[in-house]
Design brief:
single chain; two-stranded antiparallel ribbon; 280 residues; alpha+beta; 6-stranded antiparallel beta sheet; 2 domains; 35% helix; Alpha-Beta Plaits; globular
Length: 280
Amino acid sequence: MSGFHVRPIYDENSKVRYLLLKLYAWKEVELLRLFFALSRWRVMQSAWFRKPFYYALLHLLGTRGITGQATTLTEIEEFIERLSDAYQIAVGPCRCRVGNRNCDHEIMTDIVIMQTAPIWYADLFPQDYRVITKDQAKAICQRSRRAGLVQFIDRHLYLRDSRNYFVICNCCKESCIPLITYRLFKRERFRFLPSASIVQIDQAKCRACGKCVEACPFEERKLDVGKLFATTIHCQGCGLCVDVCPTGANQMVLRANRAHPTRLTKSSVLSMIRSTTPRR
């Protein structure tokens, strides 16, 4: 039929994708609560169980279904500023904290964005979510950063560098399932989307105080024989180590064009800070 066009399921404006995300949102808290409980099983520390569990159930979901990208505070502020005014922004309770109540951080930090935001503030949870301005969204991220939380931009059905952004998360290491998942399955090479920036360390300025080791929610920093040793090949680019360093030994630089363990399209590295004008 002339002019007939079927959108791929991963298309930003796909109605099927919208319905799938709505179904996920409907049971999101229950799913996150379940995974939090599973992550505490002692058997998860055993490779014979953890590895098949990850590859059978979580690998595809975590790298294509719902996948995140860590940002610095400056990057997330720029991203929010560039969001299209065609869509409203709303904030509600962090789904991870609602599910497991494992920390006392601010709870109203779940910032839904883009064309699927109405799923939360209009369709399913109008009593929990409220529409906010860009400045209010940035203020939430700023408060969260001061509390030591990591800003993530999450995408739904990540295929062929799709820009299906739907939420900005402010994650803590105690409650938030993405960070718990990363630490638990990093040996299985679980990774987020590559960040735009990565840490660079000036060893001459480092005093081996250990503040960055404590701050890193990914557990990718360590002290080695009294000197700082950073596993920068797995740095996720949040910049929290820069925030807490008392000597300025850490700085964020653009990520090198190196191969990434998940083999994701490298054009995704800087896509979070490009214009988010909706496609027609």
